[in-house]
């Protein structure tokens, strides 16, 4: 019998599902035991924020407290300190306009804002070899693990946070959640999963050689978090 | 474009042969002092990291119970969740393929690559692709496939396979990695500095990511409810493999499906803490769709290959089904006194350590793996740390029973059942049982044994290679008590 | 499924007048002194000890080797020897684990099996939780280590009760040795079937006990003791392990530890 592999995939599907169903068909789900989660103590927001920062720092991210007004200037300063003259920002990102305005207001700045406005396939060389830094926003924050939740979109593509060696994230304290479970639950992610969600908790790292931690394995070597405390 | 082919030859996994060589592998690797030192150091490190990440026993135990139940619920609904996963993935624009055997899985992947004219393939870390020996398969078809996880990259350079499921190159120290780079990488400036070694890997692999047309990854959790594939990683190579090339192929076992998105957070928390003691990994990547028309990056096509390869055999028995609760954290190997001493390669299987001993018999059959279930002192360390409470020692004991039972030829029997049954051994246990269930016979035998204590040889096979022989007492406890306390 | 370390979940009876002693096959032919010592110790606590002469072996060796039927028939024979509804005290954590945690499954459906398993107490567990014993140390100051067998630790919680007894001895300092939790490599037939691996394990265990710089070590399991003592003797190390029943009897009775009342 000759069957192409994709037809065979259908046959495999039937065979696998039949084998499994034979075992569990008609199982009474009402008999499943109750699943009890751990009740984590509820912390005041200030403590949660402190935990968030501590965890991120423990994972070698640089966290800088900024005001809503100076966030862009601080970003520019950070890059200047590193001698970086080019910063990638998403097209239509909420950060693009104010960043450009900040740059324009100080003509002595040497930093150039580059806009992610073409398909990755068309700018791969530049992305991999000539893009020293990027900036993106985070949608939510998780206190328990010191995590930034990125919700990549057409205006902030996912590779923005992945390819350039220095990644700056603008984070708002008001988006902080106690943990991943409450974040998903409170915002009903089930109903709105986008193409891709990314949880980032530090710069790229590896301990694959003799359990020795090294940063910048494949992703950013540095993660700079500009934390705006908009709760006060 | 598809190529018409004959039914595939059911070639045995290459790991069947290496698993059969378990005893020889053990002898060789136990004698390698450097290897033992590498494993000893690494396991102590990982055990300490895990312990520190669970400061509260109460939290740990609650989470373990919760996650065990989450996985058991998913398994009880498995076929229906797989159907739901498939329909949600398809609705999201992701292609779903099914494979019963490793050859089929490899062939599906090769066909997808060919249909997209793919030539340069990068692979994130995937133990299932080790299971199918995908690299060999694609190499044989002139496709370049490069491992991109640092540990996997090292292992690929060395023409080895991973010795640990989380830290593939744990058997090598930095000097050995430096020597390997020196041998294989042109213009490598010799150093044993880990930062510099990783920097070298980064340089080479970035170039590959930039030019790859297909990326292959595994999956940590596949969420049926939303049709979402989750990837857990620290390096960013999983993202590089799934976001940069034009095609992303994810390969996973059918047991990785979970029912709800809300099932993910407790599993993730236990996975990373059990594995490396991290509260969370650097990246947690949730993929639900291929690139949408307004998006600038991400793959145009996403494929998921669901592999059985013996899992449905484990599923068919309620006790053995618990094997499929595994979330591949590696904690059982980190805490295993046998794994620590013999290392990951000695097992000869893709999955080493305690979990390897209970999953491999379903993949390779009990004949090829007959030495694995017995290679345990049943100390229980694995069961104690397992985040989803798989009773590994109990399952080992069960597999021992399966491998020494009389082969019945029934279709429900495990593949290779009865293949470790030795007539002599079976007879000895029958005699043993006869003596021990007849008290008079037992007391007489022990009386004789103790009277003949002088005849007990001082050499007792392997026991006395490192130990002195035990001395039988002049009189048994039974006798002494009878003399002391006549009522009995 | 076995719930590990079940001590804290267990309901303990009041101090009984009578108990059974389960001596174990290993102690029977190799180390009967510890059985006699355990009986003497319990008698000193005012307990009448019955040793049924029909007991043989708990069945664990066959059970762990995959010979279920053979294990089962031997296990049934054991149960029949202990008809009275009184505690059964076992001087081995590993045999105790077998009878308390593995019998329910092995002997599923046998009448009264749950009640039988409820009567199983490991020796140190019995002293701590049932007798709520208070020990008086009459021995000289010394340092000892303790090795707990894996089944004793994970199924019976002996690392807790054993240590709590040693810690009651005022003149004894309990030293925790390196990799204290790790298996000694015995594992019954494992030591023979995979002798190379077992040898590597006992080499490390004996080395860490020697490194602990103690005069002796104690254990509640003869399997491990036979393994580790055999290795130490082979290595010509003076250090030896002793059963905790003998050790406690010696310390509390003012007899010198290590001294045994040989064949009397």
From TrEMBL, chain A:
<feature type="domain" description="LUD">
    <location>
        <begin position="49"/>
        <end position="228"/>
    </location>
</feature>
<dbReference type="Pfam" id="PF02589">
    <property type="entry name" value="LUD_dom"/>
</dbReference>
<dbReference type="InterPro" id="IPR003741">
    <property type="entry name" value="LUD_dom"/>
</dbReference>
<dbReference type="InterPro" id="IPR037171">
    <property type="entry name" value="NagB/RpiA_transferase-like"/>
</dbReference>
<dbReference type="InterPro" id="IPR024185">
    <property type="entry name" value="FTHF_cligase-like_sf"/>
</dbReference>
<protein>
    <submittedName>
        <fullName>Lactate utilization protein</fullName>
    </submittedName>
</protein>
UniProtKB/TrEMBL annotation, chain B:
<dbReference type="GO" id="GO:0051539">
    <property type="term" value="F:4 iron, 4 sulfur cluster binding"/>
</dbReference>
<keyword id="KW-0677">Repeat</keyword>
<keyword id="KW-0813">Transport</keyword>
<dbReference type="GO" id="GO:0006089">
    <property type="term" value="P:lactate metabolic process"/>
</dbReference>
<dbReference type="InterPro" id="IPR037171">
    <property type="entry name" value="NagB/RpiA_transferase-like"/>
</dbReference>
<dbReference type="InterPro" id="IPR003741">
    <property type="entry name" value="LUD_dom"/>
</dbReference>
<keyword id="KW-0411">Iron-sulfur</keyword>
<dbReference type="GO" id="GO:0046872">
    <property type="term" value="F:metal ion binding"/>
</dbReference>
<dbReference type="InterPro" id="IPR009051">
    <property type="entry name" value="Helical_ferredxn"/>
</dbReference>
<keyword id="KW-0249">Electron transport</keyword>
<dbReference type="InterPro" id="IPR004452">
    <property type="entry name" value="LutB/LldF"/>
</dbReference>
<dbReference type="Pfam" id="PF02589">
    <property type="entry name" value="LUD_dom"/>
</dbReference>
<dbReference type="InterPro" id="IPR024569">
    <property type="entry name" value="LutB_C"/>
</dbReference>
<keyword id="KW-0004">4Fe-4S</keyword>
<dbReference type="InterPro" id="IPR024185">
    <property type="entry name" value="FTHF_cligase-like_sf"/>
</dbReference>
From TrEMBL, chain C:
<protein>
    <submittedName>
        <fullName>(Fe-S)-binding protein</fullName>
    </submittedName>
</protein>
<feature type="domain" description="Cysteine-rich">
    <location>
        <begin position="144"/>
        <end position="228"/>
    </location>
</feature>
<dbReference type="GO" id="GO:0005829">
    <property type="term" value="C:cytosol"/>
</dbReference>
<dbReference type="GO" id="GO:0016491">
    <property type="term" value="F:oxidoreductase activity"/>
</dbReference>
<feature type="domain" description="Cysteine-rich">
    <location>
        <begin position="21"/>
        <end position="100"/>
    </location>
</feature>
<dbReference type="InterPro" id="IPR004017">
    <property type="entry name" value="Cys_rich_dom"/>
</dbReference>
<dbReference type="Pfam" id="PF02754">
    <property type="entry name" value="CCG"/>
</dbReference>
């Amino acid at each position: 019998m000759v069957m192409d592999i994709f037809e065979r995939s259908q046959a495999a599907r039937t065979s696998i599902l039949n084998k499994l169903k034979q075992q569990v068909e008609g199982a009474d789900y009402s008999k499943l035991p109750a699943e009890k989660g751990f009740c984590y103590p509820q912390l005041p927001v200030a403590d949660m924020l402190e935990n968030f920062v501590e965890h991120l720092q423990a994972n070698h991210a640089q966290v800088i407290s900024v005001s809503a007004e100076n966030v862009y200037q601080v970003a520019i300063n950070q890059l200047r300190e590193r001698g970086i003259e080019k910063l990638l920002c998403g097209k239509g990102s909420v950060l693009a306009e104010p960043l450009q305005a900040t740059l324009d207001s100080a003509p002595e700045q040497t930093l150039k804002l580059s806009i992610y406005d073409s398909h990755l396939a068309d700018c791969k060389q530049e992305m991999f070899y000539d893009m020293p830094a990027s900036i993106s926003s985070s949608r939510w924050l998780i206190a328990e693990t010191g995590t930034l939740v990125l919700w990549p979109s057409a205006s902030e593509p996912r590779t923005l946070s992945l390819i350039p060696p220095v990644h700056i994230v603008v984070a708002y304290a008001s988006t902080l959640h106690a943990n991943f479970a409450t974040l998903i639950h409170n915002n009903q992610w089930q109903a709105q999963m986008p193409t891709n969600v990314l949880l980032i908790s530090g710069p790229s790292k590896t301990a694959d050689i003799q359990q020795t931690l090294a940063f910048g394995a494949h992703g950013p070597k540095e993660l700079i978090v500009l934390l705006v405390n908009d709760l006060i | 474009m598809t190529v018409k082919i004959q039914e595939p030859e059911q070639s045995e996994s290459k790991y069947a042969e290496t698993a059969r060589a378990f005893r020889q592998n053990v002898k060789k690797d136990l004698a390698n002092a450097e290897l033992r030192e590498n494993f000893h150091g690494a396991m102590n490190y990982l055990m300490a990291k895990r312990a520190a990440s669970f400061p509260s026993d109460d939290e740990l135990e609650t989470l373990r119970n919760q996650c065990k139940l989450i996985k058991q619920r998913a398994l009880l609904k498995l076929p229906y969740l797989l159907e739901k996963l498939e329909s949600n993935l398809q609705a999201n624009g992701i292609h779903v393929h099914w494979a019963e055997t490793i050859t089929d899985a490899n062939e599906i992947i090769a066909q997808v690559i060919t249909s997209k004219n793919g030539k340069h393939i990068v692979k994130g870390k995937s133990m299932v692709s080790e299971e199918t020996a995908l690299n060999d398969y694609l190499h044989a078809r002139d496709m370049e496939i490069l491992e991109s996880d640092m540990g996997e990259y090292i292992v690929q350079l060395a023409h080895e396979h991973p010795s640990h499921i989380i830290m593939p190159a744990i058997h090598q120290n930095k000097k050995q990695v430096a020597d390997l780079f020196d041998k294989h990488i042109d213009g490598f400036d010799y150093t044993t500095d880990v930062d510099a070694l990783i920097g070298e890997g980064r340089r080479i692999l970035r170039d590959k990511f930039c030019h790859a047309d297909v990326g292959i990854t595994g999956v940590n959790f596949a969420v049926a409810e939303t049709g979402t594939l989750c990837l857990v990683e620290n390096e960013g190579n999983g993202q590089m493999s799934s976001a940069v090339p034009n095609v992303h192929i994810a390969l996973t076992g059918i047991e990785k499906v979970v029912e709800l998105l809300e099932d993910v957070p407790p599993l993730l928390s236990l996975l990373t803490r059990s594995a490396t003691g991290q509260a969370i990994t650097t990246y947690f990547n949730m993929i639900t769709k291929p690139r949408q028309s307004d998006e600038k990056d991400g793959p145009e096509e996403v494929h998921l290959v669901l592999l059985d390869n013996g899992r449905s055999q484990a599923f068919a028995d309620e006790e053995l089904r618990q094997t499929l609760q595994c979330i591949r954290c590696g904690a059982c190997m980190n805490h295993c006194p046998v794994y620590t001493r013999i290392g990951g390669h000695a097992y000869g299987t893709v999955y080493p350590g305690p979990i390897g001993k209970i999953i491999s018999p379903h993949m390779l059959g009990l004949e090829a793996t007959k030495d694995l279930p017995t290679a345990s002192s049943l100390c229980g360390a694995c069961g104690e740390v397992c985040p989803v409470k798989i009773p590994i020692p109990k399952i080992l004991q069960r597999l021992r029973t399966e491998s020494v039972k009389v082969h019945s030829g029934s279709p429900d029997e495990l593949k290779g059942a009865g293949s470790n049954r030795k007539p002599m051994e079976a007879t000895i246990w029958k005699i043993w049982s006869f003596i021990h269930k007849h008290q008079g016979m037992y007391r007489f035998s022990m009386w004789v044994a103790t009277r003949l204590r002088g005849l007990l040889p001082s050499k007792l096979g392997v026991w006395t290679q490192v130990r002195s022989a035990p001395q039988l007492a002049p009189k048994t406890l039974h006798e002494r008590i009878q003399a002391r306390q006549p009522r009995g | 499924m076995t719930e590990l370390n079940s001590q804290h979940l267990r309901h303990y009876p009041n101090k009984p007048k009578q108990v059974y002693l389960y001596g174990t096959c290993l102690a029977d032919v190799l180390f009967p002194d510890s059985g006699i010592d355990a009986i003497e110790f319990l008698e000193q606590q005012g307990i009448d000890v019955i040793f049924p002469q029909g007991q043989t072996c708990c069945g664990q060796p066959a059970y762990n080797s995959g010979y279920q039927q053979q294990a089962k028939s031997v296990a049934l024979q054991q149960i029949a020897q202990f008809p009275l509804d009184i505690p059964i005290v076992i001087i081995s954590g590993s045999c105790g684990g077998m009878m308390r945690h593995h019998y329910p499954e092995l002997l599923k459906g046998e009448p009264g099996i749950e009640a039988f398993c409820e009567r199983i107490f490991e020796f140190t567990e019995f002293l701590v939780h049932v007798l709520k014993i208070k020990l008086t140390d009459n021995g000289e100051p010394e340092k000892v280590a303790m090795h707990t067998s894996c089944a004793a630790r994970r199924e019976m919680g002996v690392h807790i009760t054993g240590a709590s007894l040693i810690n009651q001895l005022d003149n004894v300092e309990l030293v925790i040795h390196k990799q204290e939790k790790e298996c000694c490599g015995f594992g019954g037939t494992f030591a023979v079937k995979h002798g190379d691996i077992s040898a590597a394990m006992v080499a490390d265990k004996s080395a860490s006990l020697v490194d602990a710089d103690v005069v002796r070590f104690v254990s509640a399991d003869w399997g491990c003791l036979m393994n580790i003592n055999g290795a130490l003797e082979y290595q010509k190390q003076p250090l030896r392990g002793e059963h905790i029943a003998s050790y406690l009897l010696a310390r509390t009775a003012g007899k010198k530890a290590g001294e045994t009342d040989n064949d009397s």
